[in-house]
Amino acid sequence: MRDTAAVEVTGLVKRYGDRTAVNGLDLTVRRGTVTAVLGPNGAGKTTTIETCEGYRRPDAGTVRVLGLDPISDATALRPRIGVMLQSGGIYPTVRAAEMLRHTAALHAHPLDVDALIERLGLDGCGRTPYRRLSGGQQQRLALAMAVVGRPELVFLDEPTAGLDPQARRSAWDLVRELRADGVTVVLSTHFMDEAEELSDDVAIIDAGRVIARGSPEELCRGGAENTLRFTGRPGLDLRSLLKALPSGTAAAEPVPGSYRLTGAVDPRLLATVTSWCAQNGVMPDSISVERHTLEDVFLELTGKELRS
Amino acid sequence: MNTKTTRTTGHGTYSPRPGAAPLSRMIAAQAALETRLLLRHGEQLLLTIVIPTLLLVLFGTVDVVDLPGADDGAGRVDFLAPGVLALAVLSTAFTGQAISTGFERRYGVLKRLGASPLPRWGLMTAKTCAVLAIEVLQVALLSSVALALGWSPHGDPLSVVLLLAAGTAAFSGLGLLMAGTLRAEATLAGANLVFLLLLVGGGVVVPLEKFPAPVRDVLEWLPISALSEGLRDVLRDGAGMPWGNLAVLTVWAVAGLAAAARFFRWE
What we know:
- The structure holds two protein chains of two kinds.
- By secondary structure, chain A is α/β, with parallel strands linked by helices.
- Chain A folds into two domains: 7-221, P-loop containing nucleotide triphosphate hydrolases (Rossmann fold); 226-291, Alpha-L RNA-binding motif (Alpha-Beta Plaits), CATH 3.30.70.
- Chain A contains eleven helices and 13 strands.
- In chain A, the strands form three sheets. Chain A has a six-stranded mixed sheet with strand order 5-6-7-3-8-9, sandwiched between helices.
- The longest helix of chain A has 16 residues, at 165-180.
- In chain B, helix 3 packs antiparallel against helix 5 (120-148), helix 3 runs antiparallel to helix 7 and helix 3 packs antiparallel against helix 9 (223-235).
């Protein structure tokens, strides 16, 4: 049982009328990891997650969550997962602490409610009705409800949308603590930095399919080339420089005195460049390495900006 | 729950330890929460408490409508009290439940609870318990007011309880059918309109005899008429179990609950 993946989605297809929201999607989530499902609005993130949660019946393909079918094994599965919907899900008139306490009461071994309220910075608004909480407080309450039952697996659908930077950091810390304690986390996001910061694995989704997957490092390394820029006196002999560099590296001087190298930028390449400068009596005024981010990867793969 | 020692968020705080609470505890918690929310909701209280009480006091003390036995106040109250009790059931089981459930659906509350360990039938059981809890409060309050106005109830309490239960089932089915199929705003408007129409045309404060015979023949088949007339037969006239009225309510209950089970959409 422990060897099976936390989530195993194979060939998932989901249509709404004649619109295909998910079109042959495969996704594996290893136990004890944080997996980010990354994609623009309408890519099929929420449909995929809601199928795993048992809300949607697949038109084709199979979905196994903790080895169970989310629909036919719902009774066994529900107590073991935590769910944070993209929005809503809470009575407008319920008080924040009351709602969390109630959610805890539906579970056999819940977390300490007061500690969780304090942990998420909701201690000032425990008696405030949900509809009068700020957007960020509402998000944090929904997040708390997802984890209060001590689940094995948590689905967070855009958990930090609408949070201010400080609350966002605090939510990230919570995800890290969950992971450290052995909870598997699946989160959807369209924030690149969130996926890079938090996740062991990233699945990039576009138009209902996974178009790339891997660790953030793998994704940034593969496919996209990195860039090294330096400035020095104009008119350096780039051919001589290129001879010293591994093949596949390109060099250009787009603006006089400003140089750009593209290719597999690693520590050795940087050392080669600086020693070539030393040999040629060149003092680089500035030197910088630009690593590709997931944002670049996404742009290259889809030709689209992630956030619309 | 109040163990200060676990207040740290160090290693192991979130270690998985999943499990559903015992069913009875989940249902009790859900029913208690829904009852508290209903009691905290001003518009709901207006509908379920204030309006029935005002009608009872107003029509019981002032000769607004020509009621049977209107020559003395006690006669008026004997007519009114059963009708107002029927109205109380209508307001809670139908109008209140339709509106609150409709908005719970709209706000995704039903959806989110669908991912919790509480099964759907458990949620529905909890809703029924919350409705019954409010009804107990209503019956206690309205009976006290009626008694203060000189009401002298007759009949077998068991018949009264059976009629109230059948009425609750009938109105719940119709209310949930509305909440589970219409938009929340449409449910809000529709449930209030139905409340008003049934208040006037269901033998609550206006005797059905006031309507022309053909209209009356139709009105008598309404669940509110069956409930108010049935309660009146027992409580005012001391009649035995009004089987005809109970049968009408049962048919409405079976039809309404079956339709709600078939057509209710959770999202």
